[in-house]
């Protein structure tokens, strides 16, 4: 199974980025073979709709679970429509999130946890 974690950098030791649509990287981790790819988020500087675009990117990559600090309603609806589950409110390193997920300590949510456009700085 492929899970994606929003990350501040391209390594497992990096911190989870609290923003879904505007995170610098997505770490896509394959739980079947313990391999990962770091994908630079091309949507980070978009003017609008970056959550939806990032959610579509996750669907295109075959991701089934997204782990992030926060996720807005438009991105959540897009992921939900694509059959992707969201685990939000997660902090710490990417590696620690993967380990907690494998232990069964992280559970999917059934809604977004921030308002639209909250990732803008």
What does this structure look like?
This protein is an alpha/beta fold. The chain has one domain (2-102): Dinitrogenase iron-molybdenum cofactor biosynthesis domain (Nucleotidyltransferase, domain 5), CATH 3.30.420. The chain has helices at residues 50-60, 73-81, 94-102; strands at residues 2-7, 25-30, 35-40, 65-67, 85-87. The protein has a five-stranded mixed sheet with strand order 3-2-1-4-5, with helices on both faces. A hairpin with a 4-residue loop joins strand 2 (25-30) and strand 3. The longest helix has 11 residues, at 50-60. It is globular, with a radius of gyration of 13 Å.
What order do the helices and strands come in, and which of them pair?
Elements (H helix, E strand, L loop, with lengths): L1 E6 L17 E6 L4 E6 L9 H11 L4 E3 L5 H9 L3 E3 L6 H9 L19
Parallel strand pairs: 1-4, 4-5
Antiparallel strand pairs: 1-2, 2-3
Helix pairs in contact: 1-2
Assign the structural class, choosing from mainly alpha, mainly beta, alpha/beta, alpha+beta, or little secondary structure: alpha/beta
CATH architecture: 2-Layer Sandwich
Please identify the oligomeric state. Answer: single chain
- Uncertain regions spanning at least 5 consecutive residues: none
Defining key terms:
121 residues, alpha/beta, Nucleotidyltransferase, domain 5, 5-stranded mixed sheet, 3 helices, 5 strands, globular
Short note summarizing the structure:
By secondary structure, the chain is of the alpha/beta class. It has 3 helices and 5 strands; from the N terminus they run βββαβαβα.
């Amino acid at each position: 199974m492929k899970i994606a974690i929003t990350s501040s950098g391209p390594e497992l030791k990096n911190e989870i980025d609290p923003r879904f649509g505007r995170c610098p990287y997505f770490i896509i981790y394959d739980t079947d073979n313990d391999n990962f790819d770091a994908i630079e988020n091309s949507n980070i500087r978009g003017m609008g709709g970056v959550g939806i675009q990032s959610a579509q990117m996750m669907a295109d990559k075959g991701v089934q679970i997204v782990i992030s600090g926060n996720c807005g309603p438009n991105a959540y609806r897009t992921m939900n429509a694509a059959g992707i589950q969201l685990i939000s409110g997660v902090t710490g390193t990417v590696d620690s999130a993967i380990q907690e997920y494998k232990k069964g300590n992280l559970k999917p949510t059934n809604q977004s946890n921030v308002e639209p456009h909250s990732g803008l700085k």
